[in-house]
Amino acid sequence: MSQLSLRPYLLREERSGDLAVFRVLLAVYGALFGVVRLDYLLGFRHQPATSFQPIGLARLWDHFPSNGIWLTLCLSLTPLALVWLWGRWPVVGLLYAGVLTLTLSFSNAFGMILHTENLLCLHVIIVAIGSQRVSRSAASTLFTPATTLYLCAWATALAYLISGTAKLRLGGFAFLSGDTLQTHIAVDNLRKILLGDSSSPLAEFALRQDALAGTAAVVVLALELAAPLALWWRRGALVWSALMWLFHLGVLALMAIAFVYPLVGMAFAPFLPLGAWVRRLSVRRRDLARS
After folding, report:
1. Residue 263: closest CA among 283, 242, 237
2. In degrees rounded to 5, what are phi and psi of residue 14?
3. Which segments in the chain show pLDDT lower than 70?
4. What's the predicted TM-score (pTM) here?
């Protein structure tokens, strides 16, 4: 009988193929992020100066950057991500990570702190640093692929653990009754209706289901607090990732809020055997081509 290992399963394998796929996905997502969020980011130029409360790297400045500097930062996100996607110069990953961190620090300084965007930033930083060569050999990098993905998985797990802890800190175990969850759904949809934004057509029905709200609150809190366990149990990680994805799908359905990074699976990618999935897909494509 094999002994139960206390070493996380994420560190028991080489995982170079998984990291290669994840880096490509990060770069593609980052390039699209720079395009899709460009108008949103540029809009911070028109925010009142009094609203600027610097955090992160933005603390190095006592005011929002000039229009020219801000425009340069925002417009450089997609080109840097595309060069990083090419993969010829790993140092570009560090430059992209720095620009992305600085850009999000400035946008977060106006109070719009989006944890899914910050998780993207953490993943980019970890992969960019871990991929730096420590010698002329391309195979010799600062972190092993397994360590890099392990750190990325921890970043995801901690994001959800902090979210669950915040629920308990702010609302206590009363959150488990479902009342807080129902109130949040109701207030968010009412605000959108009053402002003319898109609201959820399912919200009214869901708010009438008291038992469902209580069950959902218990499940969500349990999943968030149990996030670190996904680092040690492979099948558990797959189940946990699937359930958290369903949670975000529920948020989209009931509140019309799309947390894109987890909805497309990027938040959970460090837990997954991406390299094996790509190899299987390639084999199937070759088999179909031969048939």
Report:
1. 242
2. -75, -50
3. 1-6, 134-139
4. 0.89
